[in-house]
Design a protein that fits this description.
This protein is an alpha+beta fold and 272 residues long. The chain has seven helices and ten strands. Strands 1-6-7-5 form a four-stranded antiparallel β-sheet. A four-stranded antiparallel β-sheet has the order 2-3-4-8. It has a two-stranded antiparallel ribbon with strand order 9-10. Helix 1 runs parallel beside helix 7 and helix 6 packs across helix 7. GO terms for molecular function: 8-oxo-7,8-dihydroguanine DNA N-glycosylase activity; class I DNA-(apurinic or apyrimidinic site) endonuclease activity; damaged DNA binding; double-stranded DNA binding; zinc ion binding.
Length: 272
């Protein structure tokens, strides 16, 4: 599932490609990906220009000149591609937005969605999200307070709770925990102050590096895109079950926690 670094990468790429551009056509092949009937969606977006693109947590907001917003959440398996009909991947497209110089294809939206909302509706939809993990206002003290409010929870469960912090999911929760030398299953209330300090620094380091390298999703955004997915090869534990830990050499373990895959080193990650 795309997380903060991947969605911020999309924000930058979409801004470069589409800011100020008019939607000249639209096509919907899966109406369930929308929140309004397909014909109404097409009528309301066709002819509208995209003013700018914003990200909030794992969501993207495309601001239209009508004052409405296109709210995109890719969920599990969703991605986007911008280009010509000849360039697009050989995958099923749920929604296509046509522009003068190319098409924006929404692919894999079986669980994800593209909703057309008023400004007030969009604000209400995102109201319960926690702070952004790299927001300068999220100090180490505020970070610790938000985690400790979930002191009975396991670390990973708290990190992926979008009401605690917005944008962290399975991959980066495991990477942050590994970098901080804390087990993903450690109980928040049992963590020592030093562990909370390490987690805060780890969160900033991991997400900054992942954002710089283009995230872990390997689907290119357009022809010639060689940056998107650059962090995939840099993951220390995620999807590396059985491989040696890069810090101590022990085998990385994969387990399940609260119906989520979790990857960690049982040797150098601790529960306090």
């Amino acid at each position: 599932m795309p997380e903060y670094p991947e969605m911020d990468r999309y924000r930058v790429l979409l801004s470069d490609a589409l800011a100020g551009q008019k939607i000249v056509s639209a096509e919907v092949s899966r109406e369930k990906s929308l929140n309004v009937p397909a014909d109404e969606f097409i009528r309301r977006v066709q002819g509208r220009a995209i003013w700018f693109v914003e990200r909030r947590g794992k969501h993207l907001l495309l601001h239209l000149d009508s004052g409405e917003r296109l709210l995109a959440h890719l969920m599990l398996g969703g991605w986007m591609y911008f280009g010509s009909e000849e360039e697009k991947p050989d995958r099923t497209v749920q929604v296509r937005l046509g522009f003068e110089h190319g098409n924006l294809y929404f692919i894999g939206l079986r669980l994800g969605y593209l909703h057309l909302l008023s400004a007030r509706e969009a604000e209400a939809r995102l109201a319960e999200l926690g702070p952004e993990p790299l927001d300068p206002k999220l100090t180490e003290e505020r970070f610790a307070q938000r985690l400790l409010a979930k002191k009975r929870s396991a670390l990973k469960s708290a990190l992926v709770d979008q009401r605690v912090l917005a944008g962290i999911g399975n991959c980066y929760a495991d990477e942050i925990a590994w970098q901080a030398e804390v087990l993903p299953g450690a109980r928040i209330g049992a963590l020592e102050p030093a562990a909370l300090t390490r987690l805060y620094a780890s969160m900033q380091a991991v997400l900054t590096e992942a954002k710089t390298l283009g995230g872990y999703m390997e689907h290119p955004f357009r022809a010639g895109d060689v940056t998107t997915g650059g962090y995939n090869s840099q993951c220390k534990v995620y999807d590396r079950a059985g491989e040696p830990c890069l810090r101590c050499g022990s085998a990385i373990v994969q387990e399940e926690q609260a119906s989520r895959k979790v990857f960690f080193c049982p040797s150098c990650q601790k529960d306090h």
